[in-house]
Amino acid sequence: MGSVRPAAVAGAFYPDDPAVLAAEVRECLDAAAPVPQGERAPKALIAPHAGYVYSGPIAASAYARVASLKGRISRVVLAGPAHRVYVRGAAVPRAAAFATPLGKIELDEEVLERLRALPFVETSDEAHALEHSLEVHLPFLQAVLGGFRLVPVVVGDASPDEMATLLDAAWGGEETLVVVSSDLSHYLPYPTAREKDRETARAIVSLAPRIEPDEACGAAPVNGLLELARRRGMQAQLLDLRNSGDTAGGRGQVVGYGAFAFREREASHA
Fold this sequence. Notes:
Protocatechuate 4,5-dioxygenase, Chain B, alpha/beta, globular, 9-stranded mixed beta sheet, 3-stranded mixed beta sheet
C-alpha cells in the first residue's frame, strides 16, 4: 500500500464533518440550474476552487452537468494551479490515494506513469500536500460520480502547448472526465470584476488560449485545455458566472468564479 495524501483544507474551505459536508454539497447541487433535457454530458469542465460558501454554488453548476455520468466515469483528470510550492511545469504525486472526509480516492497509477514520462512533469508530494485547488473539487466529484480513480496534477508555469500535451496524454475515452480548477479575477471592485470576468468568459468560450494569470489564477491549465479543445474542434459553454459579492462576501473587493462545460462536436449524419 502506498501513502495517502490526507485532506489539508477540510474544516477551512469546506466542512470536515462527513455528514455536514455531504449535506452542503447536496444543497449546492440541488440549487444548481436544472440540466436541460437531452443535453449531452460534457467531456471537460472548468470550475472554481474557493471556500464552498463563496464558490460552491458555481462549482455545483458544473458538477450538476456530469451527475448523469455516475457509473460511466471511472477516471477523473484534475488539474489546478500551484499556490504553495513553485512548480516549473506540472507536478504529480507519489501518493497512492487522496483522502477527504467522504473517503479515499485511489490514484490512477497507469496514467500518472504516462505523465511522468513527459519532460516538464515532476513527481512531488510536496506540491500536492497543502494545495487546495484540487482538494476542494474532490467532495463534489465523490458526490456526483461515486467511485473513480484520480489523476491529480498541480500546474506551475507550464505553457499552453505543454498542458495541451499533458491533457491529451490523459484524455482517454468516455470513461474519463477532465476538470480544470480555476478562479477568475481577484480582489477587484464588484463592477470592475464583473466586466473583467465577462471578457475572460468570452475568451474561454471562444477557445482562445490567451488567458492571463490576473484574469484566472489557473490560467496555465485553462490555456492548455483551451488549446486542446481548439485542436479537437470542441464547443465550450458558459454555465455560471458570479463572484464572491454575489454569494457570501462584500462588494468592495471580490473574487470571480466561472463554470464552463466542454463537449466534443456531434458527428455529422450527412
